[in-house]
């Protein structure tokens, strides 16, 4: 299990802050919790900035001639962390220079070995703005809203998945002792036989060097490259991406050609959603005399529970989970036994989340965390 490092599945850079929507930070918090159990330092938070919504926002902004698209994305990411501090490990977007360079390197290698191809295909283009709406007739243009498209032929970057075996297998999931997500395998295997990996966007990893002018790498593929680029900077051969089952259903097939590079192999660690509206009520902590553990519960323990309860943590479970955490916290040893810590690290590296409901293991994990990072009291609210 050496060289396992957890990274969050890149968060879409939408109109929110973590203070307003803490659930958006669940994958970030889970990666930090697991890396902490492994004794690893901070890793960068990963962000998905290649979005059609971002293109629309930028084109409609009054200051678009003064503020560039990249600068606008960076400002939006920085604002996500207010009023807390920026992340200790910094952040990395899916258009960072190291990501773009790795993406082009991988694409060229995949074109050379026949995994990917540039193929002329029939497409539909918006008659008003020229946006590529797809390869079949669809509804209104998602860029400008116009309701009419025209047929054309255009060279596209494609992945013929039918010629390269399954796009998703059980071994692509990093979860020892967990039930394999059969429905995700079925969803991936029912995607179109030819997946288009090039899109018309104003912002992204440009495919112009491949002769695809005005096109960028599909963000569902690009976010996998972002994880590999972050892992390469740390020398981690076994990066693990934290993401929800819904996100996995949307991106896994498109990431199939981009889960391996050299010695690196990317796997997925699934987690459920966390009911932060219910978890962030003062009454919950007053009733259970656990006000001092509020930040620990929401930022550390619940993300670990979400990795165990991948269908989502029920709001009805919150009182019981808080009481369990409080008992483990009160029982934490001054110095955790070395053999217990070794077993904890082995479980964390393997994605085995049974330890979150093991009272002795949890008490030792709490002691180790406190000895390593100090107390949690006084943490900034709203920060991941």
Considering the chains and any ligands shown, give keywords for the structure:
single chain; 384 residues; alpha/beta; four-stranded antiparallel beta sheet; three-stranded parallel beta sheet; 14 strands; 39% helix; disordered C terminus
The counted number of beta strands is 14
Class based on secondary structure composition and strand pairing? alpha/beta
In round numbers, the mean pLDDT is 91
Amount of beta strand: 15-25%
Strand order of the largest sheet: 6-5-7-8
Distance between the termini: 27 Å
- Silhouette: globular
In DSSP terms (H or I, runs of 4 or more residues), the helix count works out at 13
The poorly predicted ranges are 376-382
* Rg, Cα atoms, Å: 22 Å
Range of helix content: 25-40%
The ordered H/E elements are EEHEHHEHEEEHEEEHEHEEEHHHHHH
Largest sheet: 4 strands, antiparallel
Q: How does the SSE layout of this entry go?
A:
Blueprint: E1 4-8, E2 11-12, H1 26-37, E3 45-48, H2 52-60, H3 69-80, E4 91-93, H4 97-112, E5 116-126, E6 132-134, E7 149-160, H5 182-189, E8 194-196, E9 198-200, E10 215-217, H6 219-234, E11 238-243, H7 245-255, E12 260-261, E13 264-265, E14 267-270, H8 276-279, H9 282-287, H10 294-308, H11 318-330, H12 338-350, H13 359-373
Parallel strand pairs: 1-11, 2-3, 3-4, 11-14
Antiparallel strand pairs: 5-6, 5-7, 7-8, 9-10, 12-13
Report on this structure.
This protein has 384 residues and is of the alpha/beta class. The protein has helices at 26-37, 52-60, 69-80, 97-112, 182-189, 219-234, 245-255, 276-279, 282-287, 294-308, 318-330, 338-350, 359-373, and strands at residues 4-8, 11-12, 45-48, 91-93, 116-126, 132-134, 149-160, 194-196, 198-200, 215-217, 238-243, 260-261, 264-265, 267-270. The strands form 5 sheets. A 4-stranded antiparallel sheet has the order 6-5-7-8. The longest helix is centred in the first third of the chain and has 16 residues, at 97-112. The protein starts with a strand and ends in an 11-residue tail after the last helix.
